[in-house]
Amino acid sequence: MSVNEVYVFRPFKLIALLCVFLALCLDVVALLSPAWVTAEHFSLSLWESCSRSGARHPNQEPEWSCYSTLTSDWQIATLVLLITGAVVTLVAFMVAFISLCRGTQRRHYRTVAVLLFTAVVLQACALVLYPIKFIDGTTLQTYHEFNWGYGLGWGATIFMLGGGILFCLRTDIYEDAMY
After folding, report:
1. What b-and-e string marks burial along 137-170, b requiring 16 or more CB atoms within 10 Å of the CB?
2. Residue 173: count of CB within 10 angstroms of its CB
3. pTM of the predicted protein model
4. Which residues does residue 65 pair with via DSSP β-bridges, in sequence order?
């Protein structure tokens, strides 16, 4: 590199890798979250549904009774779609990380982007299916809200989409033309 040459570093792929890592972390936390839907005496996660019964004595705390949600088809489908999306995101992260570390950057970016867009479709299907089937099948007589676990699922999906778009950018065309 001579004195007059200038190298422009565009960290799009590094930012994309960071987006995929954040998406993976958010996805794991969303999958393990105990709060997807909450109400005054009700809590629903991907794994179990809990409801609080009234106390038998005035000095006694009300008891929570929980049961597995893996008996409902739509909840199993939501869980399978989310776990599959997380696994696809993990594979995309590993391929992107290895490509960046080994220097074979351009060769695998399109594959990583396709994997991320596949994970986005899987996650979006699960996150749309969940509230539709919950509202369709629930007869809660009280106010309920979709809580932070559901929001983290959407956050992970948005970061996956951002990482996929950044991996699609072809910065090498502009850099080769400058030199």
Report:
1. eeeeeeebebbebbbbbebbbbbbbbbbebbbee
2. 8
3. 0.81
4. 51
